[in-house]
């Protein structure tokens, strides 16, 4: 018989960043970790450190801890002004 796994180990959280769905295994995660995952999935065009997350509950800087039971749909906002042609 396989070892017993807790329900928390089996739980995953679905989040969206710029419309791209991402599966996360933890309930609490930093905005920086989400941005890195979003970059891997092609949801962020630039470097993750050049963005912050905006969710229903507010704006999250890279070091901010996010509870995915409270906020799970995000858009990215650049931290520097965008260049104009």
**Separation, N- and C-terminal Cα atoms:** 64 Å
**Average pLDDT level:** 89
H/E series, N to C?
HEEEHEEEE
Shape: globular
Summarize the main sheet. 5 strands, mixed
Q: How are strands sequenced across the largest beta sheet?
A: 2-1-7-4-5
Helix/strand-derived category reads: alpha+beta
Can you describe this structure in just a few lines?
This protein has 85 residues and is α+β, with helices and mostly antiparallel strands. It has two helices and seven strands, in the order αβββαββββ.
Structure explained in plain terms:
This protein has about 80 residues and is of the alpha+beta class. It is about 15% helix and about 35% strand. The chain has two helices and seven strands, in the order H-E-E-E-H-E-E-E-E. The strands form two sheets. A five-stranded mixed β-sheet has the order 2-1-7-4-5, covered by helices on one side. The chain has a two-stranded antiparallel ribbon with strand order 3-6. Strand 1 and strand 2 form a beta hairpin.
Task: Give a topology summary.
Elements: H1 7-10, E1 13-17, E2 20-24, E3 28-30, H2 31-40, E4 51-55, E5 58-60, E6 65-67, E7 73-78
Parallel strand pairs: 1-7
Antiparallel strand pairs: 1-2, 3-6, 4-5, 4-7
């Amino acid at each position: 018989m396989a070892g017993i796994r807790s329900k928390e180990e089996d739980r995953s959280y679905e989040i969206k960043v710029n419309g791209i769905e991402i599966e996360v295994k933890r309930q609490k995660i930093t905005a920086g970790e989400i941005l890195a995952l979003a970059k891997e999935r092609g949801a962020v065009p630039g470097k993750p450190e050049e963005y912050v997350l905006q969710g229903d509950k507010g704006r999250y800087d890279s070091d901010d801890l996010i509870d995915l039971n409270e906020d799970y749909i995000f858009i990215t906002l650049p931290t520097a002004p965008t260049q104009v042609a």
